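Sequence in, structure out.
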Amino acid sequence: MEWDMMLSKYEGSRITVWIEDLSGEEQTQPKPFTLFKTALTEDRAYLKFYFNAAQFLSVPLLDDSLTKLERRQERDCFISHDPKSNLRYHIYFEERV
């Protein structure tokens, strides 16, 4: 799937990022950002969510059962579950496009 192309329509939108630790460790709190841009890594294994020209979160891209875009009534959500690191990444798009 061409994640960078699919999610580029959200550039400039407000997003909320939450990294869920499934190992039972202390949880992080969701943090708001503005999505500057998205870009695939050269090996296409990760999608970078840029918050400005230099800062980004790199999220692993796995098969369709682990990485997906959920279209919900209130807002869309990109989810990637990385079983190796026991983390689940949630990127909530605050504006429907």
